[in-house]
Amino acid sequence: MPESQALDALRQFVLERDWGQFHSPSNLAKSISIEAGELLECFQWSDSPTSEVRDELADVLTYCYLLADRLELDPEEIVLNKLEKTREKYPVEKARGKSTKYDNL
Amino acid sequence: MPESQALDALRQFVLERDWGQFHSPSNLAKSISIEAGELLECFQWSDSPTSEVRDELADVLTYCYLLADRLELDPEEIVLNKLEKTREKYPVEKARGKSTKYDNL
Amino acid sequence: MPESQALDALRQFVLERDWGQFHSPSNLAKSISIEAGELLECFQWSDSPTSEVRDELADVLTYCYLLADRLELDPEEIVLNKLEKTREKYPVEKARGKSTKYDNL
Amino acid sequence: MPESQALDALRQFVLERDWGQFHSPSNLAKSISIEAGELLECFQWSDSPTSEVRDELADVLTYCYLLADRLELDPEEIVLNKLEKTREKYPVEKARGKSTKYDNL
């Protein structure tokens, strides 16, 4: 897996605190949802986010990196793989300029 | 911002389809929550995930990268910044081996 | 719509504070997700919930009632209607004792 | 607990299919988040919901009713109890017309 300063720091942080025991894939998936809700709260009553958006987005990314690591997945790689599937569902000529879901294009 | 093959591919993908118009920070934050729910669904009735976990985690990361880009934030940087704040809330001597929230340590 | 003491109290509460202006269906849907994340946080590291579970479940229900009201829907009625659709997707003889999704039964 | 036609029907539905085994409080809390994400998806790219909003809101309510039942809580009662706490955090004279969170009023 390519080097990532953030992931190295996260691994070290978790190891020092003996927190790996709580980081089952299931608990990490729950954590991603929990933090996604806190990120969304920055936009709860307005389309312009509160200043906490930086830290809340960081929290979602943190748990995503931890889950990817736990499942031995590379974030860059799985995003690129999924993008290829999305490319087939949304060919440019059909999807350009539309927010319609692929099964209604 | 450091090079990221995934982000470059995502930017190109969105540009080709003229989808930037739908990617307000607010819509991207909603999308992160939506995909986090789909990721969680891989663990709905069991702690062992279904095979869709790769693609669902990729979807959450995808929208996180797009939101970071839209807000001119670097994912690595904001994760490291937030980690420093978390380090202060959870000193090793107090937090080691416990899942307790910081206000109850 | 049948009488509901909780809904009456919520309507009064919102009216007194002139908060209806913030309660677009979109904002209420975001709020439901946000509160669902806080409810899930009661189970983040353990299958046994923290004591906040009562209030967090109340928050999800609160926004559900407000959204139903805003869309002129009756909670009891829409739950019963959806149940009929679910009954067709999960006939007892096929679904009994299994957590499998309907498209894999 | 007061009579609720929807809850009675849900209990019967779950019993017939022997699904109670999957309905731990933790799994139900996950389900609420999952369905909240599907509800939010009705508003993903627009403030006007798609037609699925009825069924998606019904799904969130369904799991909320099941979790309340599992924890021996009455939805009406916990909503009213929480409202009293919210009343103290948001006195009319301070909160009227504002979407500000209580710790910033």
Automatic annotation (TrEMBL), chains A, B, C, D:
GO terms for molecular function: nucleoside triphosphate diphosphatase activity. Keywords: Hydrolase. CDD domains: NTP-PPase_RS21-C6_like. One of its GO terms (biological process) is nucleoside triphosphate catabolic process. The keyword Hydrolase applies. The keyword Hydrolase applies. It comes from the Bacteria. InterPro entries: dCTP_Pyrophosphatase (IPR052555), DCTPP (IPR025984). This is Nucleotide pyrophosphohydrolase.
